[in-house]
Structure prediction request, 365 residues.
Amino acid sequence: MKKLLVMAALASLTCTGLFASGQNESGAQFIGLAMPETHVERWQQDGASLKSEAEKMGYTAEVTFGDADQSKQNQQVQDFITKGADLLIIGSVNEGVGSVVADAARDDIDVIAYDRLITNSGDYDYYITFDNFKVGQFQGEGIIKGLDMDNASGPKYITLFAGSPTDNNANFFFDGAMSVLGPYVDAGELVIVGPAPMSSDDKANFTKIATENWRPEIAKARMENLLNNDAKDVVLDAVLAPNDTLARAIIEACMTDAKYDTVDKLPVVSGQDGEVGSVKFIRDGKQYMTVYKDTGKLAQAAIILADALLKGETPNVPGARLDTSSYDTGKKTVNSYLLEPIMVTQENYKEVFIGGGVYSEADLK
Prediction:
């Protein structure tokens, strides 16, 4: 009812420039796209892809970026509601977005949580992402392979980083990685330098390795501090880095230390997202691996899901696995559509990124 009243009031305004090419004249339904930030490269790509895919299917779409500020994102989402959005796709900054998700629910606006579970909310039913536990498993497997642990003659030293404590995905990434690395730690074959949570449930230690808002400068400063303190008297063999932006910051910190000042001395460093800067690092031997999540396919899948919801149909999202039991917001379990990630190293980066048309040779110069 609130939504209908708002739309009626807007329709009565003499100045309707905001909707001149949108819902009122074209009849196209309006999808609001709220992305969390721009300092992580992939979110800019996601926003553009979502808008493009929505428009291909005949919808009007607008994308905003919250600059890692939940109050700003909430205002952006509230603006979408005021404009008469028929559906919202939200990559949240943190669970503080729940207040405007509740506003959307009161107006019967469907919300799709995009790549980040909106925790502590019972006001939405759908979540779409990649299999983020598997992303973490790939990171752990990459480190084990990069260290050649099956043939290692002595213990290897590793330090741990995690993503933003306000991003539920950071837990899945870390727990997936530790499901692979943990047995080697327990056997004494991997020695953790610095804080050593074995799962994200160890909040006291997990908080110490987490990186607020995925900020690379925070990861770089922490790595520099580690090199001057906990890791001062050891040579690190590996670093669990949760994404590419942080991986490069960590590598840059390492290269200011004489122990790691050439490529062959750098630790094995994991990553995620397939950012062009990290693909170059992988090619050059600076970063060992990344996990590629085709966000173009994720955006396409999200709009297919949105299209079904707007048409009142049962969703069928090609290439995504429906999980109805694993993703609990703390208030309810939501229907989650999971796409598959791809592990990438120096061995297959050309096949995945150049052969797959993600980047050209010129992009990697």
The chain has two domains: 2-124+294-339, 132-293.
